Amino acid sequence: MPIDRLRSFADASGPFVSLYVDDTRDNPDAEKRATIRWQAIRRNLEDSGAAEHMIGAVERALLHSQPGVGRGGRAVIAGREGVLLNEHLGAPPSITVLRVSEYPYVLPLLDLTTSNPAYVFAAVDHLGADLTGHRNGLVHRETVDGHGYPVHKPVSAGWQGYDDHERSAEEAVRMNARAVADRITDLVDRGGGELVFLSGEVRARTDVVAALPQRIADRVVTLPAGARGGRATERELAGEIDAEFARRQRDGANAALARFKAESARNSGLAVEGLPDVCTPLRAGSVGALIVGDMGSATVVCGQSRTTIAPDADTLSELGEAPSGVVLADEAVPFLAISTDATVVRAGDGAQLTDGIAAVLRYPLRVA
Question: What InterPro entries does this protein map onto (predicted)?
Answer without folding.
Answer: Bact_RF_family2
